[in-house]
# Entry
Amino acid sequence: MDHLLREKFGVYRCDGFGICRGGYHFKVSPCPMFVGSDGFESHTPRGVITIARGILEGSLAYTKEIADLVYRCTMCGNCRLLCGAEYEDGGPMIDPAGVLLAMRADLVENSLVPPPVRDFFKNVHRYGNPFGEPAEERGKWGEGLGLEEYEDHDYLFYVGCEGSYDERGKRMAVALSRLMALGGVSFGILGEKELCEGNEVRMSGETGLFQWLADRLVLRFTERGVRRIVTLSPHAYNAFRNDYPALAGGCEVVHYTQLLRDLLRAGRLRPLRELGARVTYHDPCFLGRRNEEYDAPREILRALQGADLIEMPRTREDSLCCGGGGGNFFTDMLGGGENSPSRMRVREAHGTGAQVLVVACPVCAKMFEDAAAAEGLDGALAVRDVSEVLLQCCSG
Ligand code: SF4
Ligand code: SF4
# Structure
């Protein structure tokens, strides 16, 4: 329990008031680990801190049940924000997700991770992506688009695993490529030389595998002299921005919504066609809460003619996670039941009267598209990505 020991101060500073459960802010819990569970206290952030205390004091030991619980967390960061206990410099005094992350690292070291998590790690290690697909297939999504391999372009487009292999993510990658071409952006891709950036690996507690990926990817960036990266996924944006110290200072990293916003401001994209739809926007955890970018996607949506933006009750830093973070997109430790976060969220989106749920992350896109189908909302609520709606208004 070496990793948990390092979180000891946070564990013992918790006063147990349970603000992280969010019970009096919302009618439902803001914690994806808790929603859809049997409702026991153990499934709340506060409950996990109590379990951590038991492990530190020797009254509890890591078990299969604890491992299954710990891997339900999506690392959405909502509990840390709600707790709000901070040092004077603004650093978190108590971070339940940080405690969960330390427990995951202990479980990895003790070979106690649940089988779906073990398979996720195996695929990333063996194939360089969690889908278990061959590296040669990685750049196939862009065939026919005339994309160039990165050389000395202004931007490296880091597509990521979902954009490269998942059908929903691929559609986003194509739409973004078309928009960048329309806006005259000089960009290239790595194709089969691209590798998983490892955000979900790190968030699943496998720090050794994360470092292995990061070392290889940074080498590929530096060999090619990459100075600017645009990412499709907020998860990759988070990793490059916060967890790739070798990139710090040497490379500018932007999320694609920030690049598209700048192209609109500069008049390099002109959305002249009307969208003609009521839309609502879902803040992805790794773009919003974890990196505080709430405005770029909204600025884009407000620039669209005939796009009536209606906010959901839980928005910006209060956004409810889609349920796909922290490795759950691949391991499905939460399942897709009626009270899963993704299905709760599409009901919330539909309840605003919006016809389109706009997302800015390939994980959210897939989670919500599946959830909307499961809710029988096909035809009533379309799930579209920011670049897809913008492209619709710019092209033709
Ligand atoms: S983590 Fe923070 S909000 Fe939650 S019970 Fe502990 S002190 Fe309270
Ligand atoms: S990070 Fe999110 S899912 Fe994990 S305990 Fe906190 S609120 Fe729950």
